[in-house]
Amino acid sequence: MTANAVRGEAAIHVKGREVLLRPTFDALVRAEEELGSLFALVERAGEGQLKLTEIAALFWFCLAHPGPLTREDIGDAVLAMGLAEAAKPLKTLLGQILRGQ
């Protein structure tokens, strides 16, 4: 499954497989319910103030096909890739939130 950057999709590796992150309206509404305003989330990211838990949560809510993955699996994957590598799919998702379709 290949991520479509034009649609704001990104991919990360979790437990040895690539998973698709798709920022659908439903996914972003669920993320916003937990994380607060998405605009504020984008601002915190721009200021370098985004927390690891917020990155993992946004990725979790944007999973296109969660299957048997747990939220902890996503957190472990973020730790495994490191913040510099996690910033790449994060930037794609945040860009989609700001620009829209």
UniProtKB/TrEMBL annotation:
Domain of life: Bacteria
A Pfam family: Phage_TAC_11
Protein name (Swiss-Prot/TrEMBL): Gene transfer agent family protein
